[in-house]
Amino acid sequence: MTSLADRQAALVAALVAGAPIPDGFDPRLIDTARRALLRKRSGEVARHWPLLAASFGPKWPAVFAEWAGARPTEGSFQDGLALARTLPLTGAAAEELAEREAALRPGLLRRLTRAFR
Amino acid sequence: MSLAGSYGVGIGWRPEIAGFVAALPGLRFTEVIAESVPASGPVPAPLTALREAGAVVIPHGVRLSLGGAEPVDPARVAQLAAAARQLEAPLVSEHIAFVRAGGLEAGHLLPLPRSREAVDAVVANVARTQAELPVPIALEPIAAIFDWPDDELDEAAFLTEILDRTGALLLLDIANVYANARNRGTEPTDLLDRLPLERVAYVHVAGGAEHDGIYHDTHTDAVPREVLDLVAELCARHRPPALMLERDGHYPPAGTLRTELDAIAAASGYPVVT
Q1: B49 touching A, CB under 8 A?
Q2: Is residue B187 in a domain?
Q3: Which residue in A97, A112, B47, B254 has a CA-CA distance of 20 to 30 Å to B16?
């Protein structure tokens, strides 16, 4: 029998990375858990990216789930940033992204400056 | 709690409801997410103000992954210990669950197989954690949407063995007891009858909702009547020193939160804190 570590890893991969459901688990319940995790993540990303989430209104959880279904989280801020960059945003959501991109840039410039000094 | 006396009804402190919590005249204890407490430097001012007003603040860890097959991350243990020192807390709490494996974050608390191997893994990680903590730890059983296919122990035996072997206290989430029983089609009071209730440090009470035919312990919905009834069932057997409302989003108006706190007071027989 495989170790607990391997079995835990296979389960997490099925829940967040689109891997097959390990043998013996109830596929319906694992899918329910998978979708509950995505709902929770969508709420956490919305806290970091309120205007992005608001621009989709009640469709936000579905929009996020579509994008995040097989993408393990890199953290709520990073997840929101990565999703926002793939979307044709307008209005307040576009401004939110532009402001954050601008806020990220000085740090990036400093790092690049140091790297090439 | 590992303290003399009773603390009555409390509420989990979250930044979004800091003003509401600060304004509760009778509050004697609260809980803060341990990972949000800075390991050094100033503690958030509202928490300091609550402590100065006489309330105990308990760090509640959510990302230690005590149930992981791998040893707990020493940096995360150090953070939990630092939070306890920063808040001069009488105890800390964490979950009987795992939250990551194989380099991936699950983003939530996942259930363990109720096997001897999993008990050994939890006991080893709790021991590693206790070795670094300045205070006792209380362990919280979680709400599980699914079970593992190869459970050897039932829930009461699984939990009791972990508590016996670690000497840890129990943080009993009565809403999790309700959710698991409802989803498994069992009687929630059967579990209460078999748990070591004298080991309960404090109790979580939370709301939930049904999605896809499964009751989810969301912490973002109202506390159902059935959960309050279970609070009364618990207190009739052995009243815990403290019970607190856990709310983690979709915060309702202050009046609704006050009503929920008063309902917990009524169900437990503790004085209202609102």
Answers
A1: no
A2: yes
A3: A97
**pLDDT per position as a tens digit, B138-158:** 999 999 999 999 899 999 999
Give the mutation candidate from B117, B145, B182 for the A interface (greatest A CB count, under 10 A).
B145
| Count of domains for chain B | 1
Q: Could you tell me the pLDDT band of residue A104, with boundaries at 50, 70 and 90?
A: confident
Q: Which of B107, B117, B214 sits opposite A32 (nearest CB)?
A: B214
CATH number of domain containing B12: 3.20.20.150
Whether B102 sits inside 8 A of A8 (CB atoms) is yes
CA A116 from centre of chain? 32
**Can you give the pTM of this predicted structure?**
0.92
Domain ranges of chain A: 4-116
Is A99 touching B (CB cutoff 8 A)? no
The residue among B39, B43, B47 whose CA lies nearest residue B78 is: B39
Quickly tell me which residue has 């004298």 as its tokens: B198
Whether residues A15 and B106 touch (CB distance < 8 A) is answered with: yes
